[in-house]
Design brief:
single chain; alpha+beta; three-stranded antiparallel beta sheet; 7 strands; 17% strand
């Protein structure tokens, strides 16, 4: 939405809930509805601009239970989700460009030597200098992509290990699992879509 939100990150779901209608974040609120106190999550657009969004209110206890349900759906269909994770892992590995920064550095070494030679002969080296700047930016981008791909593989492995280590039905909510596994929750009228950091998504009607 082009706006920055400065919510407290104390709660594990903070910054993870997004509205399917307007795309805005949900905010945690202590709600007193006709004397009935509860903790709920509400879309910021609906809170700030009455009538601009019709997103529903999500009770925190329902959100926690939906997350547990999503985990149990993952573990119950672990073979299917492990297969998806393996496919995702293969795609990431195929995208890897681990040798690219070294290749760019070799080109940079050659160009830097040429630049020095041109400078010593008092020849124009503007084009060489521009190419050096371009390659430096390309190298930095390749390094960032390598880091991002490694992080993605680590998240996939983490979920693989979690699925492999869950032989029993999960009965209790654990905020540590939210912090380590969950990337986003999209709130729709009739369901909650949990997207895990590995890229796997699970929909829960809640």
């Amino acid at each position: 939405m082009g706006r920055r939100r400065g919510f407290s990150a104390k709660h594990c779901f903070t910054g993870l809930l997004y509205c399917a209608e307007c795309g805005e974040q949900f905010r945690r609120i202590h709600w007193n509805n006709r004397g009935c106190k509860s903790v709920v999550w509400r879309c910021m657009t609906r809170l700030e601009k009455k009538g601009a969004c019709h997103a529903r209110t999500v009770y925190e206890e329902s959100l926690k239970q939906a997350f547990v349900d999503a985990l149990n759906q993952l573990t119950g269909g672990s073979e299917t989700y492990l297969s998806i994770l393996q496919e995702n892992m293969t795609e990431v590995i195929e995208m890897e460009q681990s040798n690219l920064p070294e290749e760019i550095q070799r080109k940079l070494d050659v160009l830097q030597k040429k630049l020095i030679e041109c400078a010593e002969r008092h020849e124009d080296y503007e084009e060489i200098a521009q190419e050096i700047f371009r390659l430096r930016e390309q190298k930095e981008q390749a390094l960032r992509e390598n880091v991002s791909q490694q992080e993605q593989k680590d998240r996939m492995r983490e979920l693989q290990e979690f699925l492999a280590a869950q032989p029993h039905h999960i009965t209790e909510f654990d905020e540590t699992l939210v912090r380590h596994l969950l990337a986003k929750v999209t709130v729709s009228f009739d369901r909650l879509d949990f997207t895990f950091q590995s890229g796997v998504a699970v929909s829960i009607e809640k």
